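Let's sit down with a protein and look at its sequence and fold side by side. Please make up or recall a protein chain and show it to me in full. Label the sequence line and the structure token line clearly, so we can match residues to local backbone shapes. Go ahead whenever you are ready, and we will take it from there.
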Amino acid sequence: MSEDTNGLTVLSIDGASIHQSGVMPPLLILQEIASRYEVDKGSSPGSFQASENFQMIGGVGDGGLVAFMLGHFGTTINEAIHDYSNILEAVHQHPHAVGWTKDERSQKFETALKTLVASKTSHGDENCPLIRSREDNSGCKVFVTAMHALNLQHPILLRTYRSRIDADPPKCTIVEAIRATTAMPDLFTPVTLGPPHRQIDYVSPACHGFNNPIDQVREEAKAAFAGRTISCIISLGCGHPGPIQIDNFQDGTACAVVQIAMDSIRAAEQTYRRLAGVQHLYFRFDVPYGLERAVLKLNPTFNEIQAHVTAYVRQEQTSDLIDSAVKQLVELPPLIEASELVEANATVWVKKCPLPSPNFTGRRVELHHMHSYFSSTVGSSSHIYLLYGLGGSGKSQLMFQFVLECQSQSPRMFDVVYFADASLETTLETDLKAIAVDRKVGETAADAVQWLSHQTNRWLLVLDNADDKTFSIQKYIPKATHGNIIITSRNPELTGLTSKDSGTGRVGDLEKSTAEELLRRLVGPRRALPNTEDSLITQVAEMLNCFALAVTQAGSYMSATGCGYQEYIELFQKERPRLLRERKGHIPDNYPWSVYTTWAISFNQLKMASRHFMQVCSYLHYTDIPKDLFIRAAEAKPLEDVEEDPQIWLSEFMNHTRNNEGRWNPVAFDDLVQNVMSFSLIDYDPEPRLFSFHPLVHEWTRETIRSAYGQDFPNVECALQLVALSSPELNDKSPASVLLKRCLLPHLDTLVPGAVHISSVPMALRLSTVYEQTGRWNDFAHIFERAKEIGRSGEGWNIGTYTNNLTTAYHHLGRYTEALDLNRSELDNAKRTRGDEHLDTLVTMNNLAGTYRSLGRHAEAHDLYLSVLKTAKRVLGDEHPKTLTMMNNLALSYQDLGRHAEALNMQISALPISKRTLGDEHPLTLSSMTNLAGTYQELGKHAEALDLHLPVLAIKKRTLGDEHPDTLLSMINLAGAYLALGRHTEALDLQLSVLATWKHTLGDEHPNTLTSMNNLAGTFRSLGRHTEALDLQISVLENQKRTLGDEHPSTLLSMVNLAGTYQELGRHAEALDLHLPVLAIKKRTLGDEHPDTLLSMSSLAEKYQALGRHAEALDLQLSVLENSKQILGDEHPDTLITMNNLGTTYQELGRHAEALDLHLSVLASWKRTVGDEHPEMLTSMSNLAETYQALGKHAEALDLHLSVLTCRKQTLSDEHPNTLMSMANVAATYQALGRQAEAIDLLIVAVSIATRVLETEHPIALTLQQRLERCLSRDSGELNDAWVGEELGSIVAAILQCEQDGRLEDAIEQGEIALEAFSAILGECHLQTLMCLLNLAKNCLQLDRMDDVRRYIKRGYQIVEDGNFPSEHLQVVLMVEELHSRFCLGMSPEAQLCLTVPEVNLVSADEEMEAGENSMLPAEDERSPQAKAANAAEARRKALNGPLWGAKVVDGAAAYDAKNATKAKNSPSTSVVPPVTKFTATPRTSQTATNTLKTSIEITRKGTARDHSSSLVT
């Protein structure tokens, strides 16, 4: 091919987006091209010269400098690299370059350029003119672009040759031309060119949308090479902008870097489209990943840059592209006329909607929403859909997938799809213009919009990446009643453009399963141990918060580097910022930015106040940042004695939220927040007024501070001061303040875990309110322990402040000994500095007495209270509020000592004074009423207690609100009163309401919440709902161990409560396993003689009794009794209860005489101390009656039981559970006296009432039904004496244990032994034999042993047919129906027809039950027949739903508070139901926890004396 027919080659070189590495990457890429060219041509290495192989070279910025070196001076590539490195070192990488002004830097650069030019010219002329002196234009044509400083719309060309389209070019030197094309505004001064009368300033086009000169190269080649053909156009970029570390630069430079890179990419894409019809013509090389970290280092090494470029050119795709370019350079085929370079593909290429990434997965919910939205209205009305979300969340990919699905279905959803890049107004204009030209409807974007508005077909217009807020996108949206538009944007404000409420979709994080699948697709299979890869993938996904771009970037990194999941996890923990800033490997969706760069682009467009807002928030927790935090901080006075610099920084930020008067300015604050939200960098929930960050954005924002300051300070201290300023006052218990304190807690934890970084006492006082309100007493204590270290000499320091608050914390933590030391120290100080009778001294003595109470040293506490009250009356007067408070506290002391009458008298005398002097609704008056109600409850006067609790609650609801903590405590107290009266439903409703409120206002793990859960569990136990109680108690215990510790008093109490539930479920071993460590801890922490330790010993003794270990129980009880008498006195309630329990143990051991002596003594003491009707008195009477029965004195026992029953009916009502159990005890005594009919009548009444008022599975209801069944069975036939034999009893126990353990095969084996025993002892046709058969059939049925089921059922039918049972007998009805039900479950319909079910006179059964109902009624009752029938039917239904033998039987005593339980006579059993456990009085430690102690020591400030709260500790 002749030289004239060869195609020409053209080279285009981009400007450097930033100057630390400049255009070294294009030189290295060109070096690779030259090397391969030399091999293919057989030339010697290093012989390639660009000036000989390219007919035109155009460049911008530093790319223009290289163009001169290669094309004009004819240097080799290696020489160009060397020369360019010298310039970089002299100007951009000079050690002092950072401090240079633009003038200084410009001067340095110009000097270096002149040196370079002088070295390349033959005469050493540093002022060599730009245009060649010779007339011909042969050789390589070189040009650079520049721009008029006053006209930045179009670049001009500075050529080394003459051009017919520019007759009067600027007269300048080569140095001036290079200075003009490189004059970046932030780095260099403009260059002035032209004659004196019309001089013009020139700047680099790189910052103004023309960093890639490819368009100018094409246009110039068309003009310069008319009539010639082009073989190859090579365009060299300076590096893809993916991982730019913008934080290293000033804001203007950062934005310029991003913009320059984007402009280069867009120009390259447009050229691809224009020249797409000519293959192997246009080659673009641009290092896409990994380069920018080296580029943006202050002093990158050549080796670092070369390593990145080498990795790029070694990629298969890049290497193939280089080979294709080299082939064109070698062969020089004529591919296109130069005149067609600009007009190629002149029909204008209309963009197609890109395809989604091949790795796209998930997002089905969002896609379904979009499909539903568009399919419902396509063709009927115009509708616009906005996909918005954080940059990198995958908005565009989701849209691409949606379009693909719509156009892949048959028929297609849309007739045509138009796509436009809306990231800049210029790109949007260009793409819409292409639509207009393509459709021949005009040549502008407006023409395209107008045309679309008139099209009635099903068109879709996609506006992608509409993030630029500098122009309004609304004018580019067709105004029509039809058509479809999808917009993707970071700006949620564009929701105003959508056509209906459902036309928006927020694109958030991926579903975890989707993120995991995306990782698998990107990474590919990895060698891992079985079952470990899935868990590691899950860890990676969670670590990246399932953020789409982060997951994609991580997967690409692992794919490119071979890094395994575990290795990546470890690397991420150490190098999190680097991994999220850099990109490595191939990103399938071609997204140009890394995670951090994506957000930096948005961040750098924010207002300064908005940036500060994000940076302050980045040190709080990333979720639930309350708006009130900023409102209260703006209104608060500055803190004293805090770090000055952070305070100034915070003040400057808060000034953006204040008006000219220094008050909160909601408009200004909303404006700065809206600025952040417009980029989806933060979310806001207006209902609770809470802000939230994406976790990765939150961490990245903190990185912007670390980059700027090199550390987190001062922002940690600044955010800490912000939280302190916003904390409500301690005494502010309003629901809004309580909720705010709860919201502040996670932020405080984020700032100062463990409160160890508190830097001033004033700050400690403010922050302590958060810990106090949220029950975080360990942290509360840490604050003041820290305050002691930092503040003794500070302005905010006061020894009283420290002591009072720290003592409060110690009380809540159960650290009573440390509290005692502090109390004593404070008392000594108060006496020394203020005197013995000063109010502060009296209050300190009062607090010391409270600590004595907590330590169980009640006598010392009582003496102090008496002394304090005596002095207070003399100094303050009888009616002073402090005097009244101290009277209430002394009353509590009387209660501790069991002196309830004295407590009652004191409270009754104090309450009228409080009402008269303070008013009926004063908090002290309400506390006095609550305390008096508590004393009434201790005395068994529950009605009087209720009459006080009700008005207290009503007043608190009216004055404080339904959710105030004091209101909730009153609801708890009222619930306790309802429980005491047996009104369980009302108590349950109150407790559920309280628990819901605590959870809402305080959180799930606050001590008040956990205590309420304990209370609710106790009520569930009382109602027989043991499973629910057990679940609650296990949850509470786990939380308390985690938040309070294993040895906290509340944790120990929860262990005791859980043990009580286990015991009621018959799980005695588990109960014992809980009681043993509780006792050990109490002995170690409280001592052997502390009342709580003694109660734990009593409780353990009870468990030993349940396990039949009576000797161990006896030893414990004797020890407890001795200590109780010594410490508490002979007639203290705890002493009397211990005596009662000891009497029970004596009875179990057959030592009835000793039991009788104890019970008589206890009864006398109760009668003397609490009266005849007190619950403890009635319990003792029942226990004494049981002892009489054991001694055969049934008449004496009956008199006592009848007295107890009468009294309970009068004081508690007929329906109270305790009353029902008294009826059972009377019935048992009737049986012992042979008065069987009276026993049955009484039990029928009791069963009827229990059925109506108690849960079906309530232990008392079950017990009463079982006893009635026994009476009826006994009435139908006496049992042989062998029934009560030890052998048969052990068999029955074994069956029950096997069933409970789920060992049904063993239960069946034991059941067959029992069946033969029953048949032999009672006879084949006895009712108990029938029940045993039913139980065997039931167990076989569960194991699908159908042949055995049929065998047992057939035998059962035979018993019913042959047995001479009265057909109207209740138990026969029950058995027949149960047999029929069980049998049918195990047989086919055909088999069922083979057997005859014996007829049973059900009407007679109903009649008998109705008769039983009538016998319960008073004589004057005149119920209607309908009412009678309804009651009879209900009683029958309950009876038929009663428990079968072998079902789990809950101890009848389980639901009872220990001191209210009665010991019932156990009649000779006529059923295989296990004997009912005797009701005994048990220690108070087994009571369920009730309401939280309303802090007995108030927190105060500045050393003000503290006071015991007078509220009731229940």
